[in-house]
Structures are given as C-alpha cells and as structure tokens.
Amino acid sequence: MTMELRVLDPSHWDEWYGTLILAFGGVQPSAEERVLDRDLTECDRSIGVWDGDAIAGTAGLFSFRLSVPGGAVVPAAGLTLVGVQPTHRRRGVLRTMMRRQLDDVRAAGEPLAVLTASEPEIYGRFGFGMAAQSASAEIDTARVGLSVPEGADEVALRAVAPEAGLEACEAVYAQRVTARPGMLERRPGWERQPLLDPPDEREGASPLRCVLAERDGAVTGYVRFAVRPDWDLAGSKGVVIVRDLEALDPASYGALWRFLFDLDLTCTIRTGSRPVDDPWQYLVSDIRRCKVRLRDALYVRPVDVGAALAARAYALPVDLVLEVTDPFCPWNEGRWRLAGDVKGGSCERTTDAPGLRLGARELGAAYLGGISLSALAGAGRVQELRQGALAEASAAFLSDPAPWLPHSF
Ligand SMILES: CC(=O)SCCNC(=O)CCNC(=O)[C@H](O)C(C)(C)COP(=O)(O)OP(=O)(O)OC[C@H]1O[C@@H](n2cnc3c(N)ncnc32)[C@H](O)[C@@H]1OP(=O)(O)O
To answer: Is the ipTM here above 0.90?
Structure first.
C-alpha cells in the first residue's frame, strides 16, 4: 500500500494526535495538556502521512519568532509533534515529512528552522545543529551558601496564584526575550505552557506556586516553583522544584534565589533548564555541591543561509567567505560573503575564494553564538581554508550572554 502525505484537516486532529501519543509510548497526556496541544497546533502547517485510512506519521510547524545575537527577533519555524507509528518506523516516513517541512519553511520565507529533540541523534542528518545548551542543577541548600547582590533587601516579594500573576510574569518575560538569543517571543496561547500543572504528574509536589519580585511598585521578576515535602528520622528534607525564574535586574534576581534557598523544611533546590551562564552559579559558596549538568536544548537549521546570517549581529567585525555544504537543502550550497559587526550583518552570494568550509549543521550550531566554530573545527567539522579565518569567524559568532531556550516544544 502506498503512503500519502497530506496537510492536517482539523477534523482529523484527534486521530493525528493519537498517532503522536503512540509514537511516544502510548501514555495519554492530561486533559489540560491535550487541550493546550490542540489549541497550539497550527493545522495548516501540520502534516500526516497516511497509510490507507490510518495515520502513520505526524509532524507540525509552529510560526515562532526567535531572538538572535544582537537582539533582533527573526521568523523561525518550530519543527514539532513528530511521531511515526512503531509499525512504520525506519521506512523513511520521517525523511519524507522532513523534506516537505523544510520546503514549506523555505516557501514561507522563514530563514531558520528550530527544534527541541527527543533524541539528539535524529536531526543532524537533516542539517540541524545543537545551538543552545541548558544547565540543570540539584543544589544542596543545607551546605551551600548564597550571597545576594546589593539592593536585594529592598526587593519586595509577593506570593500570588500563578493565574493571577500571569500577566505580570509575561511582561517580564517579554523584556527578557531580546536580552538572550534562543528565546522565543510568546505567540498567543504559549503563555499557558509554563502554567501546565496536572495533579497526577506532580509526584507528591505541591501545586505550582508563584512569587513576584517588586521594586518601587513595579514587578521586576518572578519565580514559579513547587515544593515536594519529605521527612525521615532526621527531620525534614523537602525539595524545591523550580519551573522558571526571570528577573530584570540583579537585586530582584538575587532576592528570588534567596527566597528559594530560605524556604523552610527544604534542603534541595532542583532546577530543570537554566542558561549555562545563569548568574546564580556565581552567588553560591560551593558550586560542586550544586551538581550542575549540561544538556542539549535547542537545535537550529539555517533554511536560507543568506537571510539567516544577515539577520544577526556579530560580536566583532567580520568579513569572510564561507563555503557551505548542504546536501538536504542544496539551495544553500556554495559561497557566501558574510560581513558584519555589532550593528548587524549582510550575506550575499560570491565567487571569491572561501576562508572557511562548513556544513549547514555546523552553521546552525554556531548560529546563536553558543557553540564556537573553533571547537567545531577542533572536531574536524569546520575546515579553515585561509589562515586567520577561523579565529576571526569564531570570535565574531560568539554571543555573550549564551543562548538559551527556557522550554521545549
Ligand atoms: C522535533 C520533535 O518532535 S522530536 C520527537 C521525535 N519523535 C520521537 O522521538 C517519537 C518516537 N520515535 C519516532 O516516532 C520515530 O522513530 C522517529 C520520528 C524518531 C523516526 O521516524 P522514522 O520514520 O523511523 O525515520 P526514517 O525512517 O525516516 O529515518 C530517517 C533517518 O533517521 C534515522 N533515525 C530515525 N530515528 C532515529 C533514532 N531514534 N535514532 C537514530 N537514528 C534515527 C534512520 O536510521 C534514518 O537514517 P538514514 O538517514 O541513515 O537512512
């Protein structure tokens, strides 16, 4: 039987979503999560591969806007909701969907595609490079001290219900987006994702709580977290589970962390995804007892190399020719002259001699400035063709602060 790829008709969403759930093991998500997934699905940008009257594979795109080095916010298609029925795996269903999706992204004029991967091994072959990492931590607050920046004592903290605090949190979040590459401007509906809190997934923890930081009556930060109480013969050993924390200034940031450190009856703070250069690491007395661990967070693929490289700024002046290889999206192949500085960049086709040769995957990895071209060259994944080109490009591409995406999608 031949398989057919079709755009998702909204009336087939339940069946389509059912295929996705099966691909992920068959555990039904909470009603709350399902409703959110339904609301966020852009059906006209979602596809299914049909085998007769059954759906064998699913994939979707979200019309995101991504913060890039220099503070611009750029259209980026978020590739998502990928699943192939276990009965149909390793027969090219994903490859077929990926072909269609990257062609669609190109046709839509989005210079970039981005994703968060269930497994890092899957997407490199399609030109996605790991562009941002995140750091998790398990902080032993009984042993680790915290010193807070000046001004933290003047910050007022106010507990609110997460729903009640949402608007204020979103206003802070919106200001943080352009401050750090890798963050996504909120699309309508996405503000509900950090509030998802299905009771049967709490594993003994409290419902989600929210505390706002305020200075001079204005909200300057927030933390959303839960507490999992725990007791043994020695007493309390509760865990603070941090969902998200954002602040607009060091004093508010420090005050929120101090609040977490000081929560009674707890001795551990667990954070999921935090930036790799998150400043709390420089407030603690013993980083080793914080068990910081890195993982891959955001994968980037340049879909239009010229537009993508022209959309960001560069830490140092750069003027060099890149020779790009891209078998999966061959329209990107060839030589590109990149010129740029802190104000922005331009990137045009050229026939001049190249300084660097690299693949789309490596360009995606380096794009947000979190993975250095020199390190990729050290791994043999970038070749220097003109002496000095690597050092010039590597320094220019790097970003301070490091890129980060606070959530998966
Ligand atoms: C962005 C996101 O949504 S991430 C979520 C991805 N989904 C999941 O992880 C759910 C569980 N897994 C699945 O549904 C499927 O196994 C998928 C989607 C990962 C792969 O779908 P398939 O149709 O089997 O992939 P397909 O047959 O097109 O394989 C394409 C290539 O990827 C490779 N590949 C596919 N899955 C994997 C994997 N999990 N690990 C390593 N390689 C893989 C194949 O070997 C093939 O390699 P080739 O280029 O050398 O030929």
So the answer is: yes
The string of pLDDT tens digits covering residues 363-392 is 999 999 999 999 999 999 999 999 999 999
**Which residue stretches of the chain have pLDDT < 70?**
1
* pLDDT at residue number 288: 98
Report pLDDT for 1: 55
Range of the domain at 361: 304-397
**Same domain, yes or no: 103 and 140:** no
405 part of a folded domain = no
Do 250 and 110 fall within a single domain?
A: no
pLDDT digits (tens, 9 = 90+) for 281-316: 999 999 999 999 999 999 999 999 999 999 999 999
Q: Is 117 in the pocket of ligand 1 (CB under 6 A)?
A: yes
| 322-351 residue pLDDT tens | 999 999 999 999 999 999 999 999 999 999
Please report, for the domain that includes residue 382, its CATH number.
Answer: 3.30.1050.10
* Matching residue, tokens 């419902």: 207
Q: Does pTM surpass 0.95?
A: yes
The verdict on the CB of residue 94 being under 6 Å from ligand 1 is: yes
Is residue 130 included in any domain, yes or no? no
Identify whether residues 56 and 21 lie together within a single domain. Answer: yes
The rounded Å distance from CA 82 to ligand 1 centre is 9
Q: What is the pLDDT of residue 2?
A: 83
Compute, in angstroms, the gap from residue 367 CA to the centroid of ligand 1.
Answer: 24
The enclosing domain of 192 has a CATH number of 3.40.630.30
Q: Which of 17, 62, 64, 123 is catalytic?
A: 123
Q: How many A from CA of 391 to the centre of ligand 1?
A: 35
| Count: domains in the chain | 3
Residue nearest to atom 46 of ligand 1 (CA): 90
